[in-house]
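Below is a filled-in request sheet from our internal design queue. Each sheet records the structural input a requester submitted and the sequence that came back. We keep these sheets so that new team members can see what a complete request looks like end to end.

REQUESTER: design group, bay 2
PRIORITY: normal
MODE: inverse folding
CHAIN LENGTH: 108
BACKBONE (tokenized):
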């Protein structure tokens, strides 16, 4: 099956099913495109245990995160999606993907 690449400005919804995320001790960064937060992401193994290694990811949110979410709290993304954008490095255009979500909330 062939999938078409996203063009700059286009978005596509994604699923975070099976991913577990925790808020990192990193300041929320306000940007002109939203609010960037840093999370630790792990997966649940087929044995039911959490993966030992987690990955630090940044996610740009469309709305500011709840100030009541504590560092280390388990969280979930609301309506996660990828957005394509274009940047120029050394005079050459490059297409990139940005991990985004409409909001962040405590995990249920």
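RETURNED SEQUENCE:
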């Amino acid at each position: 099956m062939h999938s078409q690449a996203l063009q700059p400005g286009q978005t596509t919804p994604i699923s975070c099913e099976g991913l577990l995320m925790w808020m990192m001790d990193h300041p929320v960064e306000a940007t002109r495109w939203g609010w960037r937060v840093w999370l630790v992401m792990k997966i649940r193994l087929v044995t039911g245990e959490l993966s030992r290694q987690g990955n630090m990811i940044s996610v740009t949110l469309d709305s500011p995160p709840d100030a009541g979410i504590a560092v280390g709290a388990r969280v979930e993304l609301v309506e996660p999606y990828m957005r394509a954008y274009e940047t120029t490095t050394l005079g050459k255009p490059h297409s990139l993907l940005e991990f985004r979500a409409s909001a962040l909330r405590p995990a249920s």
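SHEET NOTES:
- The CA atoms of residues 33 and 100 lie 10 Å apart.
- The chain has a mean pLDDT of 84.
FILED BY: M.R.
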